[in-house]
Hints:
The complex is a heterodimer of chains A (about 240) and B (about 220).
Chain A: E1 3-13, E2 16-26, E3 30-34, H1 41-49, E4 56-61, E5 64-68, E6 73-74, E7 82-85, H2 97-101, H3 119-127, H4 143-155, E8 161-165, H5 173-190, E9 194-198, H6 201-207, E10 210-215, E11 218-220, H7 222-225, E12 235-236
Parallel strand pairs in A: 3-9, 3-10, 7-8, 8-9, 10-12
Antiparallel strand pairs in A: 1-2, 1-4, 4-5, 5-6, 10-11
Chain B: H1 2-35, H2 41-53, H3 56-67, H4 72-81, H5 89-113, H6 117-125, H7 130-158, H8 162-168, H9 178-187, H10 191-215
Amino acid sequence: xxxxxxxxxxxxxxxxxxxxxxxxxxxxxxxxxxxxxxxxxxxxxxxxxxxxxxxxxxxxxxxxxxxxxxxxxxxxxxxxxxxxxxxxxxxxxxxxxxxxxxxxxxxxxxxxxxxxxxxxxxxxxxxxxxxxxxxxxxxxxxxxxxxxxxxxxxxxxxxxxxxxxxxxxxxxxxxxxxxxxxxxxxxxxxxxxxxxxxxxxxxxxxxxxxxxxxxxxxxxxxxxxxxxxxxxxxxxxx
Amino acid sequence: xxxxxxxxxxxxxxxxxxxxxxxxxxxxxxxxxxxxxxxxxxxxxxxxxxxxxxxxxxxxxxxxxxxxxxxxxxxxxxxxxxxxxxxxxxxxxxxxxxxxxxxxxxxxxxxxxxxxxxxxxxxxxxxxxxxxxxxxxxxxxxxxxxxxxxxxxxxxxxxxxxxxxxxxxxxxxxxxxxxxxxxxxxxxxxxxxxxxxxxxxxxxxxxxxxxxxxxxxxxxxxx
Lengths: 238, 223
C-alpha cells in the first residue's frame, strides 16, 4: 500500500505555536512513525484519518487522494475507509463489547441492539477470545481485553489500512510484549497495511518494516529523534 | 373536589407540553452553545438564562406585550392563522416553557461539554454519519445530565404561577392550573379546597424531585 504524506499545519495556543511540516512516502505494509511526545506524530496520524485538517499539502493512500489543499479535496473521516486504534481505545462506555465491535456495521440513528447477531462480529469475538465477554461493558474489561475489543471494532469493517496511535502505551510491560506479538501475527495473517506511531523503541524493532522519525514537527534522522539503536533490517526514512 | 382534579389535570397537561417543548429546544440550544463557537455566544447564554432570575410577572408582561392582540407576534398569528394565545391553556404552555427553559438548556450544555470528543471521532472513523454520531454517541452519553434537568423543568412548570396568571388568566376548568387554583381558593376563603390542592401539589413535587435526584450525574456509573 502506497502512503504519500506531504502536509503542513500550524497550531497556536496562547503565545506558543507548533509547526508541523511532514513529508514522507512509503510503499511498505508496516510503517512505523517514531518520535518523542510533542513531535507531531499523533497529528500526522489524525490527518491521515481525517480527524485533523492540514493547512496545505496532500495525503494519498493506496491511489486515493484523501486530502489535497490545492484541489480542495478533503474526504470526511467516514469516507476514508481506514481504521483508527486510539491510544486509550475510545471504546463506547454505554455499549457492550458486542455492540462496540458491531458499531460501524450498523447504519442509521440507533445503535445495534444488545442481542443482535452479526457473522463478522461473532468471528472477531471468537478470534480474540472475547465470546464470554460479549455482554460486558468496557469498564469491566482488563487492558488487554479492551485493546482486543478496540482492534476487533476497527477491523470488522475490513479497512484499507489500520492506523495505530501508541497501541501499547496503556498496557503494563508484560502484557505489552504479548499484545505486540499478537498484533504482529494478526497483521501478517490479514495482510492489512498498518501505520503505527510510537515513542517505544521496542515497537520499532518488532513491527517496523519502514521507519520514519519525527522531531519537533519535522521528519528527522533517527539520531535526532532519539532512536538509539536501529535494527539492521530497518531503513530509516529521510 | 371536581375543580381540584381538573386543575391537576390541566397542570399536568401544561407542564407535560412545556417539558416536551423544552426537551427539544433545550437539547438543541444546549448542543449549539456547547459545540459551536460564534460571536455573542455568552450574551445569548445570558439572555436565555434570564427567566431563572427575572420575576415571572415580568416575563408574563413581556409575553403579553409580544403575544397580545397588538403585539407583533400576536397580531401576526391572529391575522395569518386566526390563533389567539392569551387566556388559553396553550398560552399557559408558552409561559411555563419559557420559565423552565434555563433548567433544561443549562445542564444540557454542561452535559454536552463533558462528552469525550475522542469517542465522537472514533464513531466518525467507523463510518457513522454526523447525525448518527449525535444520536448514537453524544446524546446517550449526555442523557443522564439532560434528564435530571428535564425533570426539574417539569416540576418548575408544574408550579408556575406568575407568568401563567398574566398570560392565561384564571378560568376554572380552562386555564386555572393547580397553583393558580390554590391562590383563588385561599382568596375565596375555601380552606378545605386549598388544603387538598396544596397536598396534591406537594406530593407530585416530592415524587418528581426524588426521581430527578436518582438520575443526577455521578450517582450511578455512566451507562
